[in-house]
UniProtKB/TrEMBL annotation:
<dbReference type="InterPro" id="IPR004570">
    <property type="entry name" value="Phosphatidylglycerol_P_synth"/>
</dbReference>
<dbReference type="GO" id="GO:0008444">
    <property type="term" value="F:CDP-diacylglycerol-glycerol-3-phosphate 3-phosphatidyltransferase activity"/>
</dbReference>
<dbReference type="Pfam" id="PF01066">
    <property type="entry name" value="CDP-OH_P_transf"/>
</dbReference>
<comment type="similarity">
    <text>Belongs to the CDP-alcohol phosphatidyltransferase class-I family.</text>
</comment>
<dbReference type="GO" id="GO:0046474">
    <property type="term" value="P:glycerophospholipid biosynthetic process"/>
</dbReference>
<keyword id="KW-0444">Lipid biosynthesis</keyword>
<dbReference type="InterPro" id="IPR050324">
    <property type="entry name" value="CDP-alcohol_PTase-I"/>
</dbReference>
<feature type="transmembrane region" description="Helical">
    <location>
        <begin position="69"/>
        <end position="94"/>
    </location>
</feature>
<dbReference type="InterPro" id="IPR043130">
    <property type="entry name" value="CDP-OH_PTrfase_TM_dom"/>
</dbReference>
<dbReference type="GO" id="GO:0016020">
    <property type="term" value="C:membrane"/>
</dbReference>
<comment type="pathway">
    <text>Lipid metabolism.</text>
</comment>
<feature type="transmembrane region" description="Helical">
    <location>
        <begin position="140"/>
        <end position="161"/>
    </location>
</feature>
<keyword id="KW-0808">Transferase</keyword>
<dbReference type="InterPro" id="IPR048254">
    <property type="entry name" value="CDP_ALCOHOL_P_TRANSF_CS"/>
</dbReference>
<protein>
    <recommendedName>
        <fullName>Phosphatidylglycerophosphate synthase</fullName>
    </recommendedName>
</protein>
<feature type="transmembrane region" description="Helical">
    <location>
        <begin position="114"/>
        <end position="134"/>
    </location>
</feature>
<comment type="function">
    <text>This protein catalyzes the committed step to the synthesis of the acidic phospholipids.</text>
</comment>
Length: 174
């Protein structure tokens, strides 16, 4: 149940308040590097889980929860500091909250959940890139963020179709 990949995921939960404290203290670029550290632990825990064959149900639940929780913290920090418009924050929050609630709901009903796919990972990388552009005040950063938001919703629809297909096949095989 508890292994190195799951402990790395747990570390990401501890990086969330650290990010928020550093951001709130006005060290926004340092906070971004804490976010990058969280992203690196995400990559590392996934790599180790696959390499060591330590993929667990607990890790499959906690990993996306840690990712979404960090992203929600980032969204809130950016919107309250007026670095992104509230409409973008609302769209990002609704998408991430929907993914968290939907995954938990179906998991506890005994349904198979869809593991992260290439589109989901690409969306995460694009969000990090958009946040980098915003924090370092690049031109058109907000336009890039909106493009990533659209891609994230498309990715969510892909997950929904995969979920339906996975659970339809499972019920047919039962």
């Amino acid at each position: 149940m508890w292994n190195l990949p799951n402990l790395l995921t747990l570390c990401r939960f501890f990086l969330i308040p650290m990010y928020l404290l550093v951001f709130e203290a006005g060290y926004i670029k340092t906070a971004f590097f804490i976010l990058l550290l969280a992203g690196l632990t995400d990559v590392l825990d996934g790599y180790l889980a696959r390499k060591r064959r330590q993929i667990t149900q607990l890790g499959s639940m906690l990993d996306p929860l840690a990712d979404k929780s960090m992203m929600i913290a980032v969204i809130l920090s950016l919107v309250f500091s007026k670095m992104i418009p509230w409409e973008a924050a609302a769209a990002m929050f609704l998408r991430d909250a929907g993914m968290i609630v939907g995954s938990a709901f179906f998991h506890f009903r005994g349904k198979q959940t869809v593991p992260a796919n290439v589109m989901g990972k690409l969306t995460t990388v694009l969000y990090y890139l958009a946040i980098l552009l915003i924090i370092f005040e690049f031109p058109y950063a907000i336009a890039c963020l909106w493009i990533v938001i659209i891609i994230s919703f498309l990715t969510s629809f892909i997950y929904i179709f995969q979920f339906k297909s996975l659970n339809k096949n499972e019920s047919e095989n039962s």
